[in-house]
Each structure stands twice: as structure tokens, then as C-alpha cells.
Amino acid sequence: MNLFRKKSISELIRTSQRGQTLKRELGVLDLVLLGIGATIGTGIFVLTGTGALKAGPSLMISFVIAGLTVALTALSYAEFASTVPVSGSAYTYSYATLGELIAWMIGWNLILEYLLAVSLVSAGWSGYLQSLIAGMGIHLPDVITAAPGSTSGQTTLFNLPAFLIVLLITFLLSRGIKESKRVNNLMVLLKVGIILLFIVIGIWYVKPSNWTPFVPFGSSGIFAAAAMVFSAFLGFDAITTASEEARNPRRDVPRGILFSLLICTLLYMIVAAVMTGIVPYREFAGNEDHPVSLALQIAGQNWFAGFVDLGALLGMTTVMLVLLYGLTRITFSMSRDGMLPQWFASVHPKYRTPFGTTWMFGLVAGVTGGVVPLTQIAELVNMGTLSAFITISLGIIVLRVKQPDLPRAFRCPGVPVVPLLAILFCGFLIMQLSSVTWFAFAIWLLAGLTIYFAYSHKHSALRGEK
Fold this sequence. Notes:
Number of helices: 18
Helix content: 55-70%
Keywords: Membrane, Transmembrane, Transmembrane helix, Transport
CATH architecture: Up-down Bundle
Distance between the termini: 10 Å
GO molecular function, one term: amino acid transmembrane transporter activity
Structural class: mainly alpha
Largest sheet: none
Mean pLDDT: 86
Number of strands: 0
Low-confidence stretches: none
CATH superfamily: Amino acid/polyamine transporter I
Subcellular location: Membrane
CATH topology: Amino acid/polyamine transporter I
InterPro entries: AA/rel_permease1 (IPR002293)
Order of helices and strands: HHHHHHHHHHHHHHHHHH
Protein name: Putative amino acid permease YhdG
Strand content: under 5%
């Protein structure tokens, strides 16, 4: 059995140009806003609360560590994106360098990562919606406000707002990339404006005494928080799934990756510093699903807390939109290669989108966000992300060795040192995740291996090649 057969880069590009194709609508600004849209949301509006409980005021250092790890990996992603301008992200890049089995497992991990990330963000979106309408005197029945077991002292059965927002996004995505792009760009500009306004207003209420002790849980707390907030940087990965809908993917996708990552890292650090300067970190307990609006409430700026809730809703809406978009494009590529049934690569004749796949994943993500507690989702998302990043960093080293003369519009600097550092950083963060997360991830991997040997290996487009 040839488990490590590879698909050449030239063949990957030819395959993307045959049969049902996607519509090229995205320029470099669209890709930067796509990256910001997928990145700025949960990280600032949700994970800052849970991260502060692990690291205290040193959360800003946790964001630096996570951002540095992502930056090292992003350079490898940028080179791949300029060399292999095909949808599929880490799955496609692994197929060209490390072989089919590894590519399948990475694709399988990406499905877990993106699907659960949408569910994770939908739960945070629900928390901010409830905070916003509570300011208007509107309170939803407890049973439909959260997943079972999410809150103490309340009986909750289903997170209905989380489910409904995913359905709305699914409807939008199924209608076409042009419409989705316009909505994303508008919401990204609005939410960044609100975040900047929060910084300008909140900085006047920072009390340096709240930063003492700066590292209450030691270095282990900083690293644990870094592992927790790592998924906040998922956005740049989603940009690579848009390669087949970018007008000039070799040039614009690397730019979109690096520009959006720089902007988002700076915003994360500043917001974490301001937020923990306003609120003593212990007070985030029980309020971690809307920490930024909590900071403004404590500062006495209740009038603006509502705007922050609105910004959070816009921010997390774009995150879900881009991640669900990326998920359908990854499975589109996997299906085209025979790894999944051809139905996943079916394109609607009018909307030119993977219509059925979009609705299938939207329903699964919506139900998951409705019934699974927030904290149980976050670490699994990070496990899938980190494993994909390790593979990409290894793949760029392999590609440089085996195809050194391949035309590259962007070259990762410092190969192999930079990719090796990315592997070490990602591996270190993986070790900070809980044993329960490792066990759940092992079950997912086992399920993936079963599907590969039962279906994917036999139906691969490369099955007749040596």
C-alpha cells in the first residue's frame, strides 16, 4: 500500500482548473480583512477572559508567545501559498510534500479545528448577545441560554442564540462569495473601529495596581494561557483556503497572511493590557464569556459597554463566517482528490458555492455550539491547530530539500531554523494542553485512520499511481 504517494504541485494546480471551479473575487485588501475577520473576535472578546484566569495580568505575554509561534508558522504558510495557489490550506500543502496519509490526517484535523472553532465562537456570540439585550431589560429563559452544565445554579438545555447565528451565517455563505465578502468587509471595519475606541476610552481607567502581581500563577500560567489563546490566531490559516477565489493568489495570499497577523497581534496585546488593568483578573470568573464589556461596566462606562457588545457580535460573526467558509473549501479540495465522497466538491450551478456541504457543516456546528460547554471546545480547537502548524513547518523544510528550484513568489527566511523553531514552539504549547484533550484528540485521530483505510485510500485520485 502506497500510503505516502504525493500529488505534484503542477498536478494540484491543474486539478484546481478542471471541472467545477470557484469564482475569483478577492483582492489583497479583501484577504487582509478576511484574516482580520477570522482572527479578531473570540481572541479579544472571549478568550481574554478565560486566559486572564490562567495567567492574570501576564496574559499580554501569553499573547506575545502565541503570536510569535504563529508568526514563525505563518512564514511557512506564506511560502506555500505563493507556491501552491490552491484551496485546501495545510491539507493541500502536506499532500505535495509529506504524502497522502499525512495529508489526510491533517485534513481530518482541520475539519475538527474549523468545525469546533465555529461552535466555540457561536457560544461566545450568544454570551455577548445576552449581555447586550440584558442592558435593554430583555432576558431569555435560562433553558435556552447555554449548553447543559455550562452555568452553576441554572438549568440550561440548549444555547439557542448560538444555533441561530450559525444558521444565518450558513445561509449567507451558501449564497455566494461576493455577498459574503461584502458583509465581512463591512463588519470587520466596524468591529476594529469599536476595538480602537475601547482602547482610547479604557486606557484612562487602567489602575497599575491591578497588574500586581503581574505573574500570579508563574510561568506555567503564562504558557497555559498561551496554549489556550492560540486559537485566537487561527484567522491567517483561513486565508490560505481562499487561494482559488483570490485574483492573484501567488502575490496576494502571502501579503494577506502577514499583514493581518501583524495587525491582530498588536490589537490583542493592547486590549489584554487595558482590560486586565481595569479589572482585577479574579473578577473574570463567571464572566469569561464577555470580559471586555465587563471591564467597561466596572469602569462605569455602561453606555459604551453596549457598543462593545455590538462590536463583539460583529467580530464573532465574521470569525464564524470565515471559518465556516474555510471548512467548506478544505473539504472541497479533499473531495476533489477522492479523499471524501464527490458530493463534498459539488458546486451550486447558480451560486458557485459548495451549497450542500455548507449547510451540512453549518447544522453540525450550530448543534455543537448549542449543546457542548465552551471550555470543552477551546482546547480541542487548539490541538488541531497546533498539529497542522507542525506539519506545515516540517513540509516547508522537505519542499526546500526536494524541490529547491521551484518558483516561489515568497520565500520563508531562515530555513530550516525558522520552521524548526515553529515546530518546537508548537510542540511546547501542545504539551500544555490537558490529558482529557489528548484523549479526545486520540479518538478523533483513530476515527480518521479508520475512514482513510476504509474509504479514502481506495478512492484516491492517485490510487493507480506508484
